[in-house]
Amino acid sequence: MDPGAELGRELSTAVVMFHEAVGAHLGVTAGDQRALGVLARHGAMSAGALAKEVGLTPGAVTGMVDRLTRAGLVRRDVDPADRRRVLLTVADGAGASAEIFGSLATEMTAMISRYTTEEREVIADYLTRTVEILRDQTRRISARQR
Amino acid sequence: MDPGAELGRELSTAVVMFHEAVGAHLGVTAGDQRALGVLARHGAMSAGALAKEVGLTPGAVTGMVDRLTRAGLVRRDVDPADRRRVLLTVADGAGASAEIFGSLATEMTAMISRYTTEEREVIADYLTRTVEILRDQTRRISARQR
DNA sequence: CGTTTTACTTCACCATACTAAACTATCCAG
DNA sequence: CTGGATAGTTTAGTATGGTGAAGTAAAACG
User: Fold this and answer.
1) Which candidate, A122, B6, B21, B119, has a CA 20 to 30 Å from the CA of B51?
2) DSSP H or E stretch at residue B106
3) pLDDT higher for A109 or A146?
4) Pairing relation of β-strands B86-90 and B45-46?
5) What is the nearest CA distance from A138 to chain B, expressed in angstroms?
6) What are phi and psi of B43, to 5 degrees?
7) How far apart, in whole angstroms, are the C-alpha atoms of residue A4 and residue B18?
């Protein structure tokens, strides 16, 4: 097998396994983590908006947010402007998640700092293109669905 | 946020979402895909050995292999040397999975071919180190588990 | 050979996360 | 105000993937 492809697959496996371990450790599901990602990108949003975004019913989101808040990953506040609504924000707190991701970030930063500026540019370029391809392929697969 | 970290998170999300889409498309779970990864790395192995490797009971592996064979990802053969045993191998066949991963591989190969040899070495080095860190961190988290 | 062990499958049961729908609280329109 | 719409939670039911143990077939042992 092409050594590049092999590396890519290993990275992919490593990423997925890391995510699984984090999920198991914090007591959140893969879907919960996806919702967290949506929330991180989008910023504060209501429970209903999140439900629409992740394609689940409001009821499911209640359970999801329960788990995420229990894990200390998300804050759930009543919207002062409309007290029926629940505003969700990614908790910037300490806690288990900060410990986990902080440690990863430290390692990654240290590793990256050993490259020259030019090398870092190459790496960033590669990552950007890879993300693009992955998103593209994900769309393609999802479109083929049934 | 550090642009490098941001890119890393995006890649991670893209990888996970790609995996989820593949799983949904082929009708296999995340666990199934992990087992497939084990099988790919290890080569042919018996159902019992796979069960031990992924930490599930033999009964669960039966169902898992059912799904994987149904998706055309794995072959299930009786071991001619010991006919109680079931030999599992990654199916190198055509089918939906080949179409999916083939397309991804084509895109990635084309993208990588645009870099010089030196650049490719930098990228490979980066990927290798990243995988190492991820595996390390995964171990760390799993160890912390109660 | 007959008994015991081994390898996988099958079965009954359990946990979990989902949906649909009833319920509660709040907002808005007349 | 009052009636209806909206936001989220709660609840009853469903699907799925897991465990543990019984069942089936093949190998190994004495």
Assistant:
1) B21
2) helix B95-112
3) A109
4) antiparallel
5) 5
6) 90, -170
7) 19
In a 3-state reduction of DSSP, which class is residue A86?
strand
Contact status, residue B138 vs residue A14, Cβ threshold 8 Å: yes
> How many angstroms separate the CA atoms of A128 and B143, rounded?
32
- For the segment B53-96, what is each residue's pLDDT rounded down to a tens digit? 999 999 999 999 999 999 999 999 999 999 999 999 999 876 77
A45 three-class SS: strand
- Rounded to whole angstroms, how far apart are CA atoms B129 and B131? 5
* Identity at B40, one-letter amino acid code: A
**3-state class (DSSP) for residue B82:** coil
Q: Which nucleotide is nearest to A56 (CA to C1')?
A: C18
The residue in chain B having the minimum alpha-carbon distance to the alpha carbon of residue A100 is B141
**CA distance readout (Å), A50 to A42, A86, B20:** 10, 11, 19
Specify whether the CB–CB gap between A68 and A58 falls below 8 A: no
Express each pLDDT in B18-40 by its tens digit.
998 999 999 999 999 999 999 99
Does residue B107 carry a pLDDT above 70? Answer: yes
DSSP string, B1-22: --HHHHHHHHHHHHHHHHHHHH
Q: Is A126 exposed, middle or buried (0-12, 13-18, 19+ CB in 10 A)?
A: buried
**pLDDT band of A146, cuts 50, 70, 90:** very low
Assigned token pair, B77: 């053969």
With contacts defined as CB-CB under 8 Å, which chain A residues touch B137? 18, 100, 103-104, 107
**In this model, does residue A1 exceed pLDDT 60?**
no
- Look at strands A74-78 and B86-90 and give their pairing: unpaired
